[in-house]
Amino acid sequence: MLRGTDWSSFALAPVYDIASTVVYGGLDRRMAMRIGSTNKIDEVGRDDFLALAKELDVSPRMVRRLIEEVCEGVGGAASDVLRDTEDALGAPLSKLRDIEEFARSQIDRLGIKGA
């Protein structure tokens, strides 16, 4: 979570490396910091984000809204990004497809079906 400059707004912090590294076998899937009760990216769920919100004294309602916004945004853009990138390069990209699949499984874990 990132606190805004006004100290009253929040946003989810970017996680640049997670989705791009999880598709390579043999790499550690633990994050540097835990979210809720876990530091394993494959186990993070909605309850973990809500536990983090409690630890940070942040509104659970706001965290749920952020989760939904991020999941809807990623879910809506994932196929487009994959298609556009493959079209631009003129080749199928199996690892990018794996990243999309991982993102969709995380969205499902967070309870946002069909995003």
Brief descriptors of the model:
HipA-like C-terminal domain-containing protein; two-stranded antiparallel sheet; HipA-like_C; kinase activity; mainly alpha; 4 strands; 115 residues; 11% strand; 53% helix; single chain
Describe the main β-sheet briefly: 2 strands, antiparallel
Helix content: 40-55%
Low-confidence runs: none
Number of domains: 1
What is the strand tally? 4
Mean pLDDT over the residues: 84
Strand arrangement, largest sheet?
Answer: 1-2
- Number of contiguous helices: 4
Q: Report the C-alpha radius of gyration, rounded.
A: 15 Å
Order of helices and strands: EEHEEHHH
Beta content: 5-15%
Q: Give the distance, in angstroms, between the N- and C-terminal Cα atoms.
A: 22 Å
